[in-house]
Amino acid sequence: MNGETDSRSASTLTECRIEEIDRVFQGAPFIRQLGPRLVRVSAGECESLLDLERSHLQQDGYVHAGVQATLADHTAGAAGATLIRSGQIVLTAEFKISLLRAARGERLCCQARVLKPGSRLIFAESEIYCDTSAGAVLVAKASVTLAVLPRPKPD
Amino acid sequence: MNGETDSRSASTLTECRIEEIDRVFQGAPFIRQLGPRLVRVSAGECESLLDLERSHLQQDGYVHAGVQATLADHTAGAAGATLIRSGQIVLTAEFKISLLRAARGERLCCQARVLKPGSRLIFAESEIYCDTSAGAVLVAKASVTLAVLPRPKPD
Amino acid sequence: MNGETDSRSASTLTECRIEEIDRVFQGAPFIRQLGPRLVRVSAGECESLLDLERSHLQQDGYVHAGVQATLADHTAGAAGATLIRSGQIVLTAEFKISLLRAARGERLCCQARVLKPGSRLIFAESEIYCDTSAGAVLVAKASVTLAVLPRPKPD
Amino acid sequence: MNGETDSRSASTLTECRIEEIDRVFQGAPFIRQLGPRLVRVSAGECESLLDLERSHLQQDGYVHAGVQATLADHTAGAAGATLIRSGQIVLTAEFKISLLRAARGERLCCQARVLKPGSRLIFAESEIYCDTSAGAVLVAKASVTLAVLPRPKPD
């Protein structure tokens, strides 16, 4: 992460933030079903991996755009969550994803980073690479706007 | 559908197109797992319904943005597929989705329509309504660019 | 405007709001140079017209995407400004514009409306029609996220 | 430019491509009025500079989002135009721009690069930096989809 985004470094990511990012990744039923795992976290950055299975495909055998969108949005949300305060959550306001190539391969790797943090809005982006027999290929890029909100009280 | 998009009406949707739209909806493993069903198809328009379950939620109990993105993209793709020729497919080039409200309720209804058909690009949009105890509420709107391509040959 | 967006009707648009919308349209030097005029305002909705001149074109004789983007963004901002409180301003957080057709004609008409108002974020969309000899044609559609902020103090 | 996008290097940009990029930048009346100049071109990449004047501002003294959108779109189009063949043009199909910070300063610098070239679609992105007394600050980022088309015949 460059100085642009935040002055905190990976080593100073507090327990509280680590906990929130785990909660975002482990606590979302839709994500648990999809199957990605978080493999790297630092202030303003996250990386996730998804082993591709038949259940991730669309009708022509490519990875469904919805799988890539979910991975891009969720990993960007986790990157944003590294920069908020205790008692806050991030919620996606909107995102755009460009599907650069039809994706087919063994695994997706999603790298998300915060472009601009903020107390109300956080701008982030995600790149998705697909591991193929010819190496890792950039298959999608997303641009995500996250709203920073107070954590809702449990019902 | 207005005259803007196409002059064909629902009643002239050929067998061939109906088949392609069924294939798009039934043939995609990721969509079969998610669970939406197509309830209305006409030239340039599609509507789908998704009964919400716990597996569709994110960590705070709202419908995951990825679920809404998948539904919006896939239903727009089906709307686009009503306007292509035999031997062609549509593939999403990019889409943007705005999450207008945190979605919580019993069912999502997605209405997609083609804004502008074309032989190379089709522009479509999707609106997602959430059935709540207070009635149907617009929770998301997406704008989708579809590329029209020759159908790939089976491996 | 439908009930979805706001309960205020056109007739109850206060003096204060009218003033703010005029300020947005007349007070922006870039807009004064471009030349659009506001022709209709109601709560959550605005319409603007731009008579096309050679200075609005790109290298192939079509209306420049930047002209359409500026018109779409600014008219959406004005629509959003009808729904804020005194002492607040709207600032565009992001927007997407789809250029549905190469635009060539005599005049652009931009119709913007708020999809979802809010105290922090306002979601709006704009449609641009081009007056041609064959009638008005939809040439672009934009989706705009506006941030609601306190008005900055003069320097 | 990385290997991802194209194997041609700056030194092999043909005369024909240089001419097309000049035409895109000099031949667009809207761009001539706005005032940016192209300062660097290589295969898949372009950089432009815009000296800020009062005519580029919105009602609160910031650079108008439409100025940034025009610069981001046009510079991305020029980057795309480095990778097409003689007799072809690029036309923007859609773009999204995130306005990361309210921009105020002396000059904008726009760096555009192609993420994925193609014979029908080119995906590009642009970053806009604003020169301020505190140095260059990233103020906007855009994601652009360009359609590659045969050059229209003169009227």
Oligomer: homotetramer
- Summarize model confidence as the mean pLDDT of chain A: 89
Rg measurement of chain A, Å: 15 Å
- Report the β-strand fraction of chain A as a percent range: 35-45%
Q: Roughly how many Å apart are the termini of chain A?
A: 37 Å
Low-confidence segments of chain A, given as residue ranges, are: 1-11
- Number of E strands of chain A: 6
Helix-strand sequence of chain A: HHEEHEEEE
Number of helix segments of chain A?
Answer: 3
| Structural class label of chain A | alpha+beta
Q: Strands across the major sheet of chain A, in which order? A: 1-2-4-5-6-3
Main interface pair? Answer: A-B, 41 and 41 residues
CATH superfamily of chain A: Hotdog Thioesterase
CATH fold topology of chain A: Thiol Ester Dehydrase, Chain A
Task: Describe the overall structure.
- The structure is a homotetramer of 155-residue chains.
- Chain A is α+β, with helices and mostly antiparallel strands and 155 residues long.
- Chain A has one domain (13-150): Thiol Ester Dehydrase, Chain A.
- The first copy, chain A, has three helices and six strands, in the order ααββαββββ.
- Chain A has helices spanning 15-26, 29-34, 65-81; strands at residues 37-42, 45-51, 88-99, 107-116, 121-132, 135-150.
- A six-stranded antiparallel sheet of chain A has the order 1-2-4-5-6-3, covered by helices on one side.
- In chain A, helix 1 (15-26) runs antiparallel to helix 3 (65-81).
- The first copy, chain A, is globular and about 45 Å long.
- The termini of chain A are far apart.
- Chains A and B meet through helix 2, helix 3 and strand 3 of A and helix 2, helix 3 and strand 3 of B.
